[in-house]
Design goal:
It holds the Pfam family NAD_kinase_C. This is NAD kinase b. GO terms for molecular function: NAD+ kinase activity. This protein is of the alpha+beta class and 273 residues long. It folds into two domains: 97 residues, Rossmann fold; 144 residues, Probable inorganic polyphosphate/atp-NAD kinase, domain 2 (Tumour Suppressor Smad4, Sandwich). 20% of the residues lie in helices and 33% in strands. It is flat and about 70 Å long. The N and C termini lie far apart (64 Å).
Length: 273
């Protein structure tokens, strides 16, 4: 069964020692959101979904695997860095002021996506790093992802894949209207801020791990930092093997037909003749 912890339970000091995930990776994301301002207990994820990139354990052997954990036979803990976001609205045309002035905090495991939404115009947003404007993103949008999220939407958008233990934040443009805008990796300790450019023709939309989608108006800002509470997940084998095994089994990373030796090709030609 899944262990679901409500906010009220956390407020009263209830903190589980371990979370067993017998569901799809979406439950992994829910765990991060539930523990917003406190440490996340170790997560043991069992594969019941379709892909299984974040769930290395097989459900068929869950009794044996859980017993090993309680016997202290944990090989490694994978500490996944995730980010905290604050969305602040300063008021916008057509929106009630009481809904636009609140600061909304979110915690994501994969990525924050800012895109053009239903508009036919390209999005135009400014990207700040520690208060300094570094570039404007003109295109379909921008993905700000954690190392864990680098193998999700960011990978589909052409970004590199980062091992979950690397403390970093990846910024990936979505279909940029530029031939030279490549994804960049910045240190985990910086603060990123995204706002609508003053000359943007349309609003933009933001989503957090694919959820809680909302519109961004002029004057709104999204601040993104690395959370000081990583998500520890129990490894099936070890820190390195689990990740590369997921790349190979789930994403078929670098899979191609093996090239034959020249001697083998010559022997095959002689046999045919």
């Amino acid at each position: 069964a899944d262990l679901t912890v409500s906010k009220s339970e956390l407020d009263y000091g209830y903190h589980p020692e371990m979370v067993d995930d017998f569901s799809r990776p979406r439950f992994f994301y829910d765990c991060c959101s539930s523990f917003l301002q406190c440490s996340v207990p170790p997560v043991m994820a069992f594969h019941l979904g379709s892909l299984g990139f974040l769930t290395p354990f097989k459900f068929e052997s869950y009794k044996t695997e859980v017993a090993k954990v309680f016997e202290g036979k944990v090989k490694d803990l994978q500490c996944r860095h995730h980010s905290e976001e604050s969305f602040k609205g300063e008021g916008g045309e057509g929106h009630a002021s009481e809904n636009r002035t609140a600061v909304v905090q979110q915690r994501v495991l994969n990525e924050v996506v800012v895109d053009r939404g239903p508009s036919s115009y390209l999005s135009n947003v400014d990207l700040y790093l520690d208060g300094r404007l570094i570039t404007s993103v003109q295109g379909d949008g921008v993905i700000v992802s954690t190392p864990t999220g680098s193998t999700a939407y960011a990978a589909a958008a052409g970004a590199s894949m980062i091992h979950p233990n690397v403390p970093a934040i990846m910024v990936t443009p979505i279909c940029p209207h530029s031939l030279s805008f490549r994804p960049i990796v910045v240190p985990a300790g910086v603060e990123l801020m995204i706002t609508l450019s003053p000359d943007a023709r349309n609003t933009a939309w933001v989503s957090f791990d694919g959820r809680k989608r909302q519109e961004i108006q002029h004057g709104d800002c999204i601040k993104i930092t690395t959370s000081c509470y990583p998500v520890p997940s129990i490894c099936c084998h070890d820190l390195v093997y689990d990740w590369f095994e997921s790349l190979a089994q789930c994403l078929h990373w670098n899979v191609r037909k093996r090239q034959n030796r020249l001697a083998d090709i010559s022997d095959s030609s002689d046999t045919e003749n």
